[in-house]
């Protein structure tokens, strides 16, 4: 934390040490510019935010109601407005992060145009978005501090010393909009060296936390699509090591690694690892491979392979493309092994990609993991790929059915119908959805809750709403009534979009640089004055 008056004193001494050549410079202007640019580099941000995450993790270990949250953001402006809103509504950014979604980079940030979430987009887009997000968050700092400086100047002009001291306290206790980003590196975009190189770029851009998944890099699928293929543990652990080395090389010793397992929905592997001793990781991985027991090599056809499992030999079940199938219903066991192995080899947090938001399912897996690793914690994807309404209404239906309640007025497969919205069942489902994050934090070890691509959907929904009205009968009223009037009444900072884009900061800089000769944009004819 910088102290305004101490910084002023240092800058006054600095200018005095230069003699007459710097007489045109003002120490207060230097002070303000330094305070508005607290973080000189992305590494400064990564080190600062890593400390925040480590403290939050420790706080969660003490009290699991102290969980953290984030929303996925696909543009710097979206992340900026999110953090401004959080500060406005809650007074602090504590426990609130940003999530950088590989899905949204693929869908919205690739030069190829919209792409599926299959690691086909440029990997340079990942660190570029991290840098963009932090650029906008730092600009939010500069803007808010600029308003506090104006408040200080106004108090001084009135000769109000109490107001001046109050403004100085606000400046000295200013809370930055810069918060941790959990950044998605997908499956590492190649081999472990490729993973290291990309992780280093992400960290240099400001990432303190990198999430990596155990899918095959060149066959990567979205976590909620079919056809997922996982890699043997030693391949995944090599990439965890690569990320950790990148953190350590760059001096971000507190960097956080989230190890994601897609094994619950992945039924295939690309290769069979070589076991060195019975019971090692490769042997445990191979124990899940599906196959038929053979009694003679004569049972093998050309190109077939045999795998020894204990005293038996099996012919692994292979697809036409050479991929090898896992045993049916082995996903949960593979998830547990993946998670324990990752924690024992350098990961800090876990991510279990599930097919539905089901508290008991998550809790049961975490309980098994904690039998071996008692402090295991999750980052959980509150995914828009889930039909939350239908899932929770069906969960309530099933629970009530077990209790023997009369459900004759409900049809389980049609519970999404609007006709059920005011029903007792729907209200109970909504209560469970409302409490899901809190309950999962305390009952299922979820340290961090995120929604991967919410702002993708909010952008589509708000645009649809405006387009329907503006191009229809409402015309301009659609914008005024649903957007501008709401911005004004809700106190959204971006209603003064010139100020949000940096116009007032630019005017101040012109005055710093050119004095009375500065040509400013904020005079009486600036239409932003209409917003007070």
TrEMBL record:
It catalyses: D-threo-isocitrate = glyoxylate + succinate. CDD domains: ICL_PEPM (cd00377). GO terms for biological process: carboxylic acid metabolic process. Can also use Mn(2+) ion. Pfam families: ICL (PF00463). PANTHER family: BIFUNCTIONAL GLYOXYLATE CYCLE PROTEIN, ISOCITRATE LYASE/MALATE SYNTHASE. NCBIfam families: PRK06498.1. This is Isocitrate lyase. It comes from Pseudohongiella spirulinae. The lineage of its organism: Bacteria, Pseudomonadati, Pseudomonadota, Gammaproteobacteria, Pseudomonadales.
């Amino acid at each position: 934390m910088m102290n305004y008056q101490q910084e002023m004193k240092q800058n006054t001494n600095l200018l005095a040490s230069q003699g007459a050549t710097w007489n045109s410079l003002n120490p207060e202007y230097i002070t303000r510019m330094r305070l508005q640019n607290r973080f000189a580099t992305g590494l400064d941000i990564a080190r600062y935010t890593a400390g925040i995450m480590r403290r939050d993790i420790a706080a969660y270990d003490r009290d699991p109601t102290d969980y953290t949250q984030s929303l996925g953001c696909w543009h710097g402006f979206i992340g900026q407005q999110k953090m401004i809103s959080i500060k406005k509504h809650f007074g602090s950014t504590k426990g609130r992060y940003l999530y950088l979604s590989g899905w949204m980079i693929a869908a919205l940030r690739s030069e190829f145009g919209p792409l599926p979430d299959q690691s086909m987009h440029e990997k340079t887009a990942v660190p570029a978005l991290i840098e963009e997000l932090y650029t906008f968050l730092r600009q939010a700092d500069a803007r808010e501090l600029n308003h506090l400086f104006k408040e200080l100047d106004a108090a001084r002009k009135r000769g109000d010393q109490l107001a001046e001291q109050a403004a100085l306290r606000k400046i000295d206790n200013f809370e930055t909009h810069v918060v941790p980003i959990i950044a998605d590196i997908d499956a590492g975009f190649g081999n472990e060296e490729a993973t290291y190189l990309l992780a280093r770029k992400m960290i240099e851009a400001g990432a303190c936390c990198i999430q990596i998944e155990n899918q095959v890099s060149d066959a990567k699928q979205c976590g909620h699509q079919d056809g997922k293929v996982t890699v043997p543990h030693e391949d995944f652990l090599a990439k965890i090591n690569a990320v950790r080395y990148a953190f350590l090389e760059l001096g971000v010793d507190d960097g956080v690694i989230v190890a994601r397992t897609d094994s619950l929905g992945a039924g295939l592997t690309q290769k069979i690892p070589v076991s060195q001793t019975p019971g090692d990781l490769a042997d445990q991985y191979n124990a899940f491979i599906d196959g038929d027991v053979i009694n003679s090599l004569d049972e093998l056809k050309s190109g077939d392979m045999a795998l020894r499992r204990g005293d038996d030999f099996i012919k692994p079940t292979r697809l036409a493309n050479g991929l090898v199938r896992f045993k049916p219903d082995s996903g949960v066991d593979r998830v547990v092994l993946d998670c324990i192995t990752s924690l024992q080899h350098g990961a800090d947090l876990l991510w279990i990609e599930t097919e539905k938001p089901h508290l008991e399912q998550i809790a049961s897996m975490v309980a098994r993991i904690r039998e071996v690793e008692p402090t295991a914690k999750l980052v959980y994807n509150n995914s828009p790929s889930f039909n939350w309404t239908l899932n929770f209404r069906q969960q309530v239906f099933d629970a009530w059915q077990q209790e023997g309640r009369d459900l004759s007025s409900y049809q389980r497969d049609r519970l999404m119908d609007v006709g059920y919205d005011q029903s007792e069942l729907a209200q109970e489902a909504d209560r469970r959805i409302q409490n899901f994050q809190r309950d999962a934090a305390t009952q299922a070890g979820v340290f961090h809750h995120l929604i991967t691509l919410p702002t993708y959907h909010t952008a589509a929904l708000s645009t649809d709403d405006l387009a329907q009205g503006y191009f229809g009968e409402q015309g301009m009223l659609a914008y005024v009534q649903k957007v501008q009037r709401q911005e004004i009444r809700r106190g959204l900072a971006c209603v003064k979009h010139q100020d949000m884009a940096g116009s007032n900061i630019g005017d101040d800089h012109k005055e710093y640089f050119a004095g009375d000769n500065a040509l400013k944009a904020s005079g009486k004819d600036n239409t932003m004055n209409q917003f007070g």
